[in-house]
Structures are given as C-alpha cells and as structure tokens.
C-alpha cells in the first residue's frame, strides 16, 4: 500500500468561524514523505506549519497549530477529511488564521478532495501501530489508544440536556474510507446558544450560524432541518477525534476509546504515545490485502454532485 497525494491543486472560499470573514483555502499535491503542511497565504514568506501534535498550542474550542509565531486554527475537521481519505502528503494554503468552517462538518472538504482526485506515489504508506495501551484522564474524562488490528473509534458523551437524547450518546466507527464518508463525514459541530452569544460579546464566533453548526437553546435544537443522524453529536466528536489523532503523523492501527474527551485530551493521548518508543512502531504493508485498513481504491473514487 503506497502513499497518496492529490492529483491536481484545487481551491475553495469559505467563512472563518471566528472572524466571519471570507477565507481562501487551497490544496496542493506534495512529494512522498512530506506529510501534511499548512501555510498562511496572507503572510509573505511564512514558514509552513507541519501537522504535528506537538505544535498544538491551544485547544479551547478547536485544535490550533502555532509554529514560528504563525498560527492556523480549527484544523480538525479538515484533518479528519484528510485522514478519512487516506491522504499522506498535502499542502494546505489558507488566507487567514483559521480554516473556514464550511457547513461545520468534514463533508465539504471530502467533496473537494475527491474532486481533486488522488494519485498513488512511489513509496510505501507508513502507519503507526499502537504497541501498548496509553490512557490519559482529567477529572472524569478520559481517552486511550490500545493495540488493535485495524482502526476503531469508540466515543461516549454525557450531556444532560433535553435536546440531546440519552440513547444516542455513544457511537463507534470501524474505520474505512467508505465508513468514514457514509457514517461520519457529514456530522456537524454543535454549540449552545448561550455560549455562542457569550463568544460574540468577545468578538468570537462572528461567522457562526445554523448554516455551520447545530445550535441548541435551553430545550431545543434550533436548526429547522433537525439532525443529520440521531447521534450526530457523538458522531461529530469522533470526527473531531479522527482529525486530532491524525496529528500523530501517520494513520493509526489501534483502538481509540474516549469518554467525554475533547481536543485537549485527544492531543494529550497522542503526545503520550509519542513520548515513549515502546508505545508504538511504524509499519508498512507491501500490498493492500495485508493492510488491515481499507481505503477506497483509486479507481473506485468518483465525484458526487
Ligand atoms: Zn468539531
């Protein structure tokens, strides 16, 4: 199984969640072993920022990378799409300090990357295989990565809120590109109206609306169209985790379990894994049959819409 990049460069314009301003986003193919890089197109000569867990500086409402004084924020939904599609090498150029929010899910990024198309590169794809269980915990929240032959994500939330059904607070994804696209990629971020109003007072979330988030007041979901899945909230938490975990630098072979985790704990479990070489090994597969993860074969990738 070989590394992948995109076939052609592609661009889109979206809105910054916090600034409310238009943000230009471009994807460019990259050579083997480059990994995922972010570059600020609005800062002349700025150094590209590698998608590394060690560059995550704040995790207040999103995962934000800072390198050499340059910042790119809200990277997790885009990284989730990149991880979901199995892209190894890519340059992302962005014209602001935040990745545009699009519809609050990873689906628009998936659509764009599919439209660019993929090409297989002449080097084996590297995976990080979890060799020992590592668990991080803060108060009653925890996240762990365990050895597992494949990639599975389990997530449980615990919201005591009339609009968030108690029966739909746990979800599981057996990772494959197909499962990612169908079961996860379109799950939107969510926010409570009172938090959004408070953020606006501080000039944050100026671009936030029901076009890019599920908005909940004291009792109800305010979006007229309702939810895309009964368990959309917890599915989105898995979507976030997939993006945050890709900052480990490779696709994961392991099982991720989490209870009430968020960007901070997702980041911490990755750093913990990487802190000791006995926790992991880097592996490759000579062919697609022996690889325990299924990506869409290049020939099967079609563009929808
Ligand atoms: Zn999110």
Q: What's the main sheet like?
A: 7 strands, mixed
Number of domains: 1
CATH superfamily heading: lpxc deacetylase, domain 2
Q: Tell me which ligands are bound.
A: zinc ion
Shape: globular
Distance between the termini: 29 Å
CATH architecture title:
2-Layer Sandwich
Predict the CATH topology.
lpxc deacetylase, domain 1
- Whole-number radius of gyration? 18 Å
List the uncertain runs: none
Helix proportion range: 10-25%
Order of helices and strands: EEEEEEEEHEHEEEEEEHEHEHEHE
The CATH top-level class label? Alpha Beta
Note the beta-strand portion.
25-35%
Number-wise, the strands total 19
Number of helices in the DSSP assignment: 6
What is the mean pLDDT? 95
Class by SSE composition: alpha+beta
Catalytic activity: a UDP-3-O-[(3R)-3-hydroxyacyl]-N-acetyl-alpha-D-glucosamine + H2O = a UDP-3-O-[(3R)-3-hydroxyacyl]-alpha-D-glucosamine + acetate
InterPro entries: Ribosomal_Su5_D2-typ_SF, UDP-acyl_GlcNac_deAcase, UDP-acyl_GlcNac_deAcase_C, UDP-acyl_N-AcGlcN_deAcase_N
Pfam families: LpxC
Protein name: UDP-3-O-acyl-N-acetylglucosamine deacetylase
């Amino acid at each position: 199984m070989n590394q992948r990049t995109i076939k052609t460069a592609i661009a889109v314009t979206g809105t910054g969640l916090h600034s409310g301003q238009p943000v230009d986003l471009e994807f460019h193919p990259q050579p083997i072993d480059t990994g995922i890089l972010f570059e600020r197109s609005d800062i002349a000569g700025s150094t590209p920022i590698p998608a590394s867990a060690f560059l995550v500086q704040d995790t207040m409402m999103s995962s934000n990378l800072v390198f050499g004084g340059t910042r790119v924020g809200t990277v997790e939904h885009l990284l989730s799409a990149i991880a979901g599609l199995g892209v190894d090498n890519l340059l992302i150029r962005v014209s602001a300090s935040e990745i545009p929010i699009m519809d609050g899910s990873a689906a628009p990024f998936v659509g764009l990357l599919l439209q660019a198309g993929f090409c297989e590169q002449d080097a084996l794809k590297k995976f990080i295989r979890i060799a020992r269980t590592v668990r991080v915990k803060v108060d009653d929240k925890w996240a762990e990565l365990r050895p597992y032959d494949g990639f599975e994500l389990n997530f449980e939330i615990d919201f005591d809120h009339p609009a968030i059904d108690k029966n739909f607070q746990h979800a599981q994804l057996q990772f494959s590109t197909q499962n990612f696209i169908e079961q996860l990629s379109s799950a939107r971020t969510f926010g409570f109206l009172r938090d959004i109003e408070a953020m606006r007072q501080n000039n944050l979330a100026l671009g936030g609306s029901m076009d890019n988030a599920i908005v909940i007041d004291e009792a109800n979901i305010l979006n007229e169209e309702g939810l895309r899945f009964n368990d959309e909230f917890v599915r989105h938490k898995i979507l976030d985790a997939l993006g945050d975990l890709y900052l480990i630098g490779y696709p994961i072979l392991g099982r991720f379990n989490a209870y009430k985790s968020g960007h901070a704990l997702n980041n911490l479990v990755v750093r913990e894994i990487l802190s000791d070489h006995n926790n992991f090994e880097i592996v490759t597969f000579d062919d697609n049959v022996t690889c325990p993860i299924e990506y869409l074969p290049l020939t099967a990738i079609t563009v929808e819409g």
